[in-house]
Write a structure and sequence with these properties.
The chain is α/β, with parallel strands linked by helices. Helices cover 57% and strands 9% of the residues. It is elongated and about 85 Å long.
């Protein structure tokens, strides 16, 4: 098992999911009669993209507060926020099903009932709702590049039908000037409002703190596609036909042939791409709905979400665009601001409570000015012990405190790994005190990694005798073995977290819904030591490239 996987997706998989989720609905719904067109449409897209670049930073900083909405806002308001997001998911799903009912019988399989097609589509999209983010990541990894290539070919083949003279009519769209640009920009922001669900899933993305560049690149790609289509459509159809077509993207390739007349109706193949994009969008909505229901403790939405979407599509819910513009987008921003404020208050209160408790403990047990203030301490979450010419080499792994308090900057790593050597642990503590300015606090230790050489020569007993005399070292810490413990603690593949946080999280948090992984704690090790005088077989940690792996027990 590779720790680096952990049911998370890579930045490339996140990027391709963005392209697959948004492209087909955008291409079908944003262009045509009474929609985004011409020069004001291009200016509106550029304006919206600038705002979305700043919004990405806000979303990433907001993600920790969405991990447990009930803890951030309380059970009532947390569930109320979940219901707000679920309403968006149901209405958007119903809108996409209605769209599918209209375009597929019209352009792909005439004579087939749209209701049966939408039922088959929502059932197909619902199959993998509960399977986890990694499966969606793999699907996007395989098909995202092909889908993007298909859009590129669509635009290239359309150029053969274009006439530059038609573009002279584009300034007609700029008749209402700045108001039209603002209206187009707000329309694009409404279309992108689904990205507001992203904080629910960012915990499933590797190195989420640096995912902003990937999200920005996704926005730029989608914006580039939209601008390209805005230029191609009037060049192919002319302005008068374009403003009268409801879905101009559908007939765009009806007059295009592949070189050599290999396929006379290339638009049929293009419809296949659009249909796949719509299905992926439906699947994304159902996946996010499942995540929201689970995080808000409202049961499971594996089956009934798809049923609600289908029923709403049969009722032909009207005014979806007005719902996005006047209800969802303003409400989304308001709720996210509430989450951010509540999250900051909760973190501040937790830090204040921790500080007060620490002060009381120091006053009670240490008295006077003999205690060490929290700011003057180093909090080791992982401890590695290796053999050294001097005797022992102890490596302390501390967390990134800036990241833990939400004050980190992009691409900044505040972790510290300190190695101190000596012939005994008492001498190592003395050497540490002479070389380091802060007191080493082992009271938060989560992981112990023992070097193989110490296990083979029997000096592992000295390690546990030393820890047994440390009153603040808990017995619930997990114990591993490694060829070189110092190298493991210096590993930087855990999204900026310390190795202690990373390994403990992997053992205790069940991300995939499967049985939790089993680790060996210090208490179990003490039991075997006292009962049988031997060391149990410890899980081994191995570094291969940038991945941290564990070797299964023999």
């Amino acid at each position: 098992m590779k720790y680096a996987e952990n049911n998370r997706i890579s930045h490339r998989q996140l990027y391709r999911q963005m392209i697959l989720s948004f492209s087909a609905p955008f291409l079908l719904c944003l262009f045509g009669k009474d929609k985004i067109l011409g020069i004001q449409g291009i200016a509106g897209i550029v304006t919206a993209l600038v705002l979305l670049m700043f919004y990405v930073i806000f979303l990433i900083r907001l993600a920790p507060d969405f991990v447990n909405p009930l803890k951030t806002l309380g059970r009532f308001w947390g569930r109320a926020a979940g219901v707000f997001f679920l309403i968006y998911i149901f209405l958007t799903g119903a809108f996409l099903l209605e769209l599918l009912e209209k375009i597929v019988p019209q352009s792909l399989v005439p004579g087939v009932s749209g209701k049966w097609l939408s039922l088959a589509a929502v059932l197909c999209a619902a199959l993998g709702t509960h399977k986890g983010m990694q499966r969606r990541g793999r699907a996007a990894e395989v098909s995202g590049g092909i889908f993007l290539l298909g859009i590129g070919f669509m635009l290239i083949f359309s150029l053969g039908q274009a006439k530059v003279s038609y573009l002279a009519q584009m300034p007609l769209s700029f008749s209402d000037g700045g108001k039209g640009v603002l209206r187009s920009a707000y329309g694009i922001l409404c279309a992108f409002s689904g990205i507001g669900l992203l904080p629910f899933a960012l915990q499933d993305v590797e190195k989420q703190g640096s995912a902003g560049k990937t999200l920005m690149f996704g926005f730029l790609t989608l914006g580039g596609i939209l601008i390209s289509v805005l230029l191609v459509l009037p060049a192919v159809f002319g302005w008068s036909r374009l403003v009268s077509e409801k879905y101009p993207i559908l007939p765009l390739l009806a007059g295009a042939d592949m070189p050599g007349n290999i396929l006379s109706r290339f638009d049929v193949l293009w419809m296949g791409f659009l249909l796949y994009g719509l299905l992926f969008s439906l699947g994304s909505l159902l996946h996010y709905g499942h995540q929201i229901i689970k995080k808000c403790e409202m049961g499971t939405g594996r089956f009934w979400m798809a049923a609600v979407m289908y029923i709403l599509s049969l009722w032909k819910v009207k005014g979806y665009g007005n719902y996005l513009a006047y209800i969802f987008l303003p409400g989304l921003l308001l709720i996210q601001m509430v989450f951010m404020t509540a999250g900051r208050d909760r973190r501040r209160k937790r830090m204040e409570a921790g500080t007060i408790a620490a002060v009381l403990v120091f006053c009670l047990f240490l008295g006077g000015c003999a205690g060490v203030e929290p700011e003057e301490r180093m909090y080791a979450l992982a401890l590695g012990i290796d053999s050294a010419p001097e005797g022992f080499a102890v490596t302390y792994g501390t967390p990134d405190m800036a990241r833990a308090t939400g004050q980190e900057k992009p691409d900044e790593n505040g972790r510290e790994v300190v190695t101190v050597k000596g012939e005994s642990f008492d001498r190592i503590e003395e050497n540490y005190g002479r070389s380091q300015e802060k007191f080493m606090d082992l009271g938060h230790l989560e992981v112990l990694i023992v070097g193989e050489s110490l296990i083979h020569d029997g000096r592992w007993e000295e390690i546990f005798a030393y820890l047994k005399n440390q009153p603040f070292v808990g017995e619930n810490i997990y114990v591993f073995r490694a060829e070189k413990a110092e190298e493991i603690l210096k590993w930087n593949g855990g999204q900026g977290s310390s190795v202690g946080e990373y390994l403990k999280g992997l053992l205790e948090n069940d991300f995939s819904g499967k049985r939790k992984r089993k680790g060996i704690t210090l208490r179990e090790l003490y039991y075997r030591w006292y009962e049988q005088g031997e060391l149990p077989h410890l899980p081994s940690l191995v570094l291969e490239g940038e991945e941290l792996q564990t070797v299964s027990d023999a």
